[in-house]
Amino acid sequence: MHYYRYSNAKVSCWYKYLLFSYNIVFWLAGVIFLGVGLWAWSEKGVLSDLTKVTRLHGIDPVVLVLMVGVVMFTLGFAGCVGALRENICLLKFFCGAIVLIFFLELAVAVLAFLFQDWVRDRFREFFESNIRSYRDDIDLQNLIDSLQKANQCCGAFGPEDWDLNVYFNCSGASYSREKCGVPFSCCVPDPAQKVVNTQCGYDVRIQLKNKWDESIFTKGCIQVLEGWLPRNIYIVAGVFIAISLLQIFGIFLARTLISDIEAVKAGHHF
């Protein structure tokens, strides 16, 4: 004889569709990131020759875009389908992944605060590696130019870091027209010029060092960023808290929906 236990437990439509709406945004954002990344790769011919990615000594910004896109697409898909189909496995995967990302972010923030010198050295190595590959990838070039223009800086610790690049190197073995120069993004902008002078950095490092600041930025980007962080600590903290609250909200919705589904299943088994 079987004994059935009936229960009034039911899955909350409110939490179900709220979690679906929460995840559809991430899923759509993931689709956009993937689309933009694949389009950028197709424009550079990477899709027809994937070895171009491995031959780049620096980092291809498109790779970061694709990685973010894959993570957002996967989590958004798992959350959407898990909520609509009331699939506990997908919901647990979504919840576990968000928890993992949350604690990774927290660990990175704490370690970066405790080991500032180590972080500074790694960032210097990263920046110098990308300076070497400045002319190898157009997206990397645009990223470095944007960073230098926005922060009015040049190189990792100064303009001399551009000796690391074969085109800007001052050694006698170089025959590049850009020898002993810097990228145009290092130049102090001239308000009178309406058209960007991409040759403004040519031969600038041949001059005496005390004259460099008349035409180019002399502060390194690492120094500028180190000064930027304390001045904007409340903005950085606010962004971190906002992201953390969104993640905690997603975890809460997923766990609540999982509990509802488990309660319904428990009320119908014998």
Automatic annotation (TrEMBL):
One of its GO terms (biological process) is protein maturation. The keyword Ion transport does not apply. Gene3D superfamilies: Tetraspanin (1.10.1450.10). The keyword Zinc does not apply. GO terms for molecular function: enzyme binding. Signal peptide: none annotated. The chain crosses the membrane at residues 20-41, 62-84, 90-115, 233-254. It is found in: Cell membrane; Membrane. It holds the Pfam family Tetraspanin. Disulfide bonds join C153-C186, C154-C170. It is a multi-pass membrane protein. Belongs to the tetraspanin (TM4SF) family. This is Tetraspanin. It comes from Otolemur garnettii (Small-eared galago).
